[in-house]
Design goal:
The complex is a heterotrimer.
Chain A lengths: L3 E14 L2 E14 L3 E5 L6 H9 L7 E9 L2 E2 L5 H7 L4 E4 L13 H12 L4 H14 L5 H4 L9 H13 L5 E5 L7 H16 L3 E6 L2 H7 L2 E6 L2 E7 H6 L4 H15 L42 E4 L2 E3 L11
Parallel strand pairs in A: 3-8, 3-9, 6-7, 7-8
Antiparallel strand pairs in A: 1-2, 1-4, 4-5, 9-10, 10-12, 11-12
Helix pairs in contact in A: 3-4, 3-6, 4-6, 6-7
Chain B lengths: L3 E13 L5 E13 L3 E5 L6 H8 L7 E6 L2 E2 L5 H8 L2 E4 L13 H11 L6 H15 L15 H14 L4 E5 L7 H18 L2 E6 L2 H7 L2 E6 L2 E7 H6 L4 H9 L40 H5 L11 E2 L7
Parallel strand pairs in B: 3-8, 3-9, 6-7, 7-8
Antiparallel strand pairs in B: 1-2, 1-4, 4-5, 9-10, 10-11
Helix pairs in contact in B: 3-4, 3-5, 4-5, 5-6
Chain C lengths: L1 H20 L5 H11 L1 H18 L1 H4 L31 H37 L1 H16 L2 H12 L3 H28 L2 H9 L3 H37 L11 H8 L8 H28 L7
Classes of the chains: A alpha/beta, B alpha/beta, C mainly alpha.
Chain lengths: 325, 318, 304
Amino acid sequence: MEPMTLRAVGLCAGIPTQKGEIRAVNDVSIDVPAGSIVGIVGESGCGKSMTARAIMGLMRSPARMTGGEIWLNGRDIARLPERQRRALRGSEMSMIFQEPMTSLNPVMKVGRQVAEAVRLHANVSRQEADRRAVEMFEAVGISDAASRARCYPHQLSGGLRQRVMIAMAMVCRPKLLIADEPTTALDVTVEAQILRLMRNLCDAGTSILLISHNLGVIAQLCDYVYVMYAGRIVEQAGVIKLFDHPAHPYTRGLLNAVSSLRRGGERLDTINGVVPNLLRLPEGCSFSLRCDACEARCAQEMPELREIAPGHKARCHLAEREAWS
Amino acid sequence: MSEVLLEARHLSKTFPAGRNRRVHAVSDVSLRLFAGETLGLVGESGCGKSTLGRLLIRLTAPSAGEVLLRGERIDDLSEAAFAPRRRQLQLIFQDPYASLNPRMTVRELIAEPLKTCRACPTREATTQRVLELMDAVGVAREFLYRYPHQFSGGQRQRIGIARAIAAEPALIVCDEPVSALDVSVQNQILNLLRELQASRGFSYLFISHDLSVVRHISDRVCVMFLGRICETGPTEAIFRRPRHPYTRFLLDAVPQPDPHRRGESVRLLSGELPSAVNPPDGCRFHTRCPYATRQCASDEPQLHGEGESCVACHHPLE
Amino acid sequence: MRLNRQRQIVEAHDIRLESQIGEAERFGDLMRRMARENRLAMVSALVILLFILGAVFAPLLSPYSASEMDMLHRLSPPGAGHLLGTDEGGRDILSRMLYGSRVSLLVGVVPTLLSMALGAALGMLAGFAGGWIDALVMRLADIMLALPSMLLAMVIMYTLGDGLINVFLTLSLVNWASVARIVRSQTLSLKKSEYVEAARVIGVKRPVILLRHILPNCLPTLIVLFTLNVPAAILTESSLSFLGLGVQPPNASWGLMVNVGRQYLYNAPWLSFVPSAAIMLIVLAFNFLGDGLRDVLDPHLKNN
């Protein structure tokens, strides 16, 4: 069996409110094998970002993690004290965000910001840290790295800022990079550049957990994909399997929505209704109210996430067990 | 060919950028919009597509050039002289969260355009009309006295659409109307926009950075780069056979939702976007264009071509 | 003919639907909702109401004259005869409090309302119109803010002379500038908001945009400013009185009573304590009421 960089088991996270706990992440288990790119796809509010934050240990109050194990390179970090967890961030696991502008300090030169990240985890001189920062800038494809390092964030374009963020995340060579919608704020031509950069990082040995709502990005980059809906994983499969034989009606709905847009024609395929309120989930399957194939038992019991083919699981009563081959 | 509804002639807009510099947001753009058609306007952020949309409906005053509505100039009219024509030119916003006043109920929001054009004489008639509009855009009637924050993004966008169509406009500028929405909801809104157009005969100027959305909804497409139109033509012609190198790069860069077509001949655009404060001489794309020659760096290419398809390039692709 | 009949049926149906839809919220509903959701605000409203009643019916409620001296009972502590004790001139403190509340409440509320109306109007105008109007209003405000407010108040009071109306005018003139500044900056950001642009697309006229889209969204700020400015005005009045520029003995105001009582703080603390407590109570009441109003007017907290 291949070594796992990350293995999250039964992750639960929620936001306490006056009307009860919003269970934004509900029993989510995710494996990221070494040297692969694993995707989490879902619509806004499905809990994909909070899953990422829970793994990083960067929950935003009042959200909190309520259960589960997080195995990083073979040890459970979920119950480590905050000090030790902080030491892991940046050195063993890193994260990049959607909006690179707000994640960078606007009054500090970008080269210095990356050098600070080096000095947090490695006991090196300032000059050495600066040198490594420039080296990292070159590695992430920033041309004219030495002079760009002396720029402030607002002097750089969105694409360059995202490269700086990636440089900062990668400068201590973490094994795992979590990318939360890394290209959503970028133009398509820049997006293509960043996607290629992430592919190169993976080829160089970094495991990546990619969170995105864009099925195009997922299809282009990921090896294995988890689909989330209303806080739960509803389907997981290898990328080709998922796109060719989606088993869960929600996955099918998403794929149809995207492909009908590309196919042309008068009417576009949609998914009925809206994403349910996490405080008032329907009985049984969370997707039952929007599902065309909904049966009596769908409205009564929550289906298990069960294996329908090797490496392919779906949380649906009606998903056919495929021929084992 | 149907009637020309709106025409822009040599439209330019610059904004002050401090220290006596100016951002050239839109430079010398001419285009025509026909009654009942959908014209897609694509380009990356900062290419001036939103500014152009706002120039066309007189939300922003142009620095140079003319805008004609049914053959009549509207850019030089006074505010009072333009007021009766205002209702013909409407806008749907990108952000359904920011474009609705949080302190107004759905009724007040949809009634506002009716009041300004005095479409309904009485309070009852207004409410009646608001309810009809809610039906038309698919917002349930019982939400009449709800506030915007009680709706999802898609529902809010429907309210925004109801406001735009309330005054029965001739042209609606849709400024990235689905970019803030999830895929499944995005398709619902696109379907709605199409239905409304079929039943009420609006023209749309559809501004988007999402090429697949533009391809679906537009009859014709304009591609903008750094304040200029670099290519325009019927949608399928542009998507099947782009002639401007920039259009080609743009189309190639879209990540395909198909894992079988991974990494397929994706040629990446090199370099950085030139600054709109100090745009390059000649063709504005020449600094990044692999086919650029000396002529491209000195001569500004003009839009030229036969029929509906025009391209502004010295060396168009075949 | 038949078509008309059908239309009537459809309309009747729609009107019935409308009645199911419910009604827009009216002022009474608003108050009822506040009573339900925010007890503290309701209690505060009640406290303010009691103070106002006390001020209005002061002649009926006062057990003694507020200005007549009684040297035999100087500085007597609170007790059976004088419920809240007497002051250095033997005057009944309860009576003086009741009469003083007329001055203090008026001084707290009227100039604050005046200065806020002036400041909000000028601030919105400056922010919305821009250009030379903005420059003019803001330079004026800068000048007002650059001068020490106490000094300014003294100069105006010296020029106008004593009297309650003059105190009102003085306090209004001193306070409008800070309100104008805050409202202007809020107007500037609201002016750029998409929903104001959306209103322009629809063709809403500029004055209507100001009143319908900008003013209601400035309201939370204005309410907070009001609750901050009322106590400030009460205290400024007391300082003016102390300097001999506001209300003069034997007339009473709470501020004056606090100040006079300070000399007797060691042997007769109730002289200062009673009016201080009253000021504190009314200030807290205004604050809580302001919070309650802000919440009740916030659409995000409505019918959920």
